[in-house]
TrEMBL record:
InterPro entries per record: CdaR-like_regulators, PucR_C-HTH_dom, PucR_C-HTH_sf
Origin species: Streptomyces incanus
Highest taxon of source: Bacteria
All copies of domain PucR C-terminal helix-turn-helix, residue ranges: 335-377, 425-468
Pfam families reported for this sequence: HTH_30
Protein name as catalogued: Helix-turn-helix domain-containing protein
Length: 503
């Protein structure tokens, strides 16, 4: 065997040409043919015998060789001897050591006829090829384990950021990706593609950003890759990635503090709804006018404190846990929220049911979900300790908050966009919301087919520039617009302190 530049032995004839069996053996080193079991089967056919490959525990890995002296096999796999040959009745056997990183395996070959020079050479070189394949396989497996471990750590960091535990997130990231989360602010991006192409896009995103960003395969949406980055250049990096791939879209958030990663993620997902209709397939969340910014901040703060007051009865850490879970649970399904938080979906449902019971409401009602979402969002964004008089009798209800001229003007402008379509999009959307987002129930109320309802709701998305079928901030703002114009009934909360309806 002559040496090749790549380190793979090259069998050669006296004339310098490879014999036929050597050509066949080398074919097993091609990427498409790297299978130890196939090599073992090939050897059995080539030497007209039976072959078995055993690992260092004596376990049969490939082939169907004869029974062997276990002590002799142990001597080979332990490295005490490199090979052995003997006769057992009418059978001729050979045992060859196969070195493999930190482990040693044994290749056993049995024939009816004695081993001649040709068959001995074939066995020896086949053992070398098997060694190369085992080493390559172990290296590949180790690389895969490392990539999985890195992916799991990146997901853990994202989960910590989503529940506002930035201290722990930085601690986890510091050891492997120094400087990744040193900045106080970052943008969140979501790359959307077909689930089958998601892994490839994630790897390309890692390469494109040079690991200067947190790249995570979304645990909730199979086609999403989430990127958290403090670098301005990341947006251009990801845009170039989207340009290279068809049917791939990019949504980005505005810059937010790390503690508000969950909010930024919601913005990026919302931007995706717009990106799907853009020629360049990308969109950045526009800092549009949010309804809560048009309300009296003092009244809004007091109303929020009054609505959420029942939760003050539980210990602080439990309250924080319930609120964090509910905030995400109102944005995603229970299953997806569980994946994001790293808990079971039963835990998510139990926590949200507890909040439902304490507030005296039903989260199957989209208006109730929108109102609680408003309260949680307000509490998170107005954490300034100014709610001391929240429970006074003068605290206004929701109806007062959403009936102001500014809010009504915003709501009118938003929903009037739907009137430009010849189809009754606005009526369908209002009925769909009242039916809890259920197309079948809405269809029964409207006297149309459920598919018609779904088509109208999807058609409303680009007009409103908001994602509707998936519950989240976009949908809840549309619900609040309907409440402001009196197109939907204000939900009633029956919590312990709700002496009067908050609306």
């Amino acid at each position: 065997m002559a040496a090749r530049k790549d380190g793979i032995p090259r069998p050669a004839t006296a004339a310098g040409e490879q014999p036929g069996w050597a050509q066949e053996l080398l074919e097993h080193l091609r990427p498409a043919g790297r299978d130890v079991r196939r090599v073992v089967d090939w050897l059995a056919g080539t030497v007209h015998g039976s072959v078995a490959l055993r690992d260092d525990t004596g376990t049969l890995v490939a082939g169907t060789g004869p029974a062997l002296d276990e002590n002799l096999v142990a001597d080979v796999t332990s490295g005490r001897i490199a090979s052995a040959a003997w006769e057992d009745g009418e059978r001729h056997l050979r045992l060859v050591q196969v070195g493999h990183l930190s482990r040693t395996w044994a290749l056993a070959v049995s024939r009816d006829t004695p081993f001649d020079r040709h068959s001995a050479v074939v066995v020896t070189h086949t053992a070398q090829v098997i060694e190369l394949l085992l080493t390559a396989g172990e290296t590949t497996a180790a690389g895969q384990r490392l990539r999985r471990a890195s992916a799991d750590l990146r997901l853990a960091i994202l989960q910590l950021l989503m529940v506002e535990d930035t201290v722990a997130a930085r601690r986890v990231a510091a050891g492997l990706w120094p400087g990744l989360l040193e900045a106080d602010t970052a943008c969140v991006y979501v790359v959307e593609s077909e689930p089958a192409r998601r892994d490839r896009l994630a790897e390309e995103a890692l390469d494109t950003t040079e690991e200067a960003a947190l790249v995570v395969r979304c645990p909730a949406m199979d086609g999403h890759v989430i990127v958290v980055s403090p670098r301005e250049a990341t947006a251009d990096d990801l845009k170039s990635l989207v340009e290279r791939h068809p049917d791939t879209f990019l949504g980005g958030s505005v810059r937010k503090s790390l503690a508000r990663t969950a909010t930024a993620y919601g913005q990026a997902v919302s931007a995706l709804a717009v990106a799907r209709f853009r020629p360049d397939k990308t969109a950045v969340y526009a800092e549009r006018t949010h309804p809560e910014r048009l309300m009296d901040p003092t009244a809004l703060r007091g109303w929020t404190a009054r609505l959420l007051c029942p939760l003050d009865a539980v210990p602080h850490h439990t309250r924080a846990e319930l609120l964090a879970t509910t905030r995400l649970g109102l944005e995603f399904t229970a299953v997806n929220t569980a994946k994001i938080l790293g808990v079971s979906r039963n835990t998510v449902r139990a926590r949200m049911e507890r909040v439902e019971n304490m507030l005296g409401t039903d989260f199957d009602d989209l208006t109730a979900r929108a109102v609680v979402h408003l309260a949680l969002h307000t509490q998170f964004n107005l954490q300034d300790g100014q709610a001391g008089s929240a429970l006074e009798a003068s605290v206004p209800g929701l109806a007062h908050l959403v009936s102001g001229p500014a809010v009504r003007a915003w709501a009118g402008e938003l929903l009037e966009r739907l009137d430009q379509d010849a189809r009754p999009l606005r009526r369908t959307l209002r009925t769909w919301i009242a039916a809890g987002g259920n197309a079948e129930r809405a269809a029964q109320l409207l006297g149309v087919h459920a598919q018609t309802v779904r088509e109208h709701v999807r058609s409303a998305e680009p007009v409103l520039e908001r994602q509707l079928p998936a519950a989240g901030t976009d949908l809840y703002e549309v619900v609040l617009a309907h409440l402001a114009l009196g197109d939907l009934e204000t939900p009633v909360f029956a919590g312990p302190v709700a002496t009067s309806p908050p609306g």
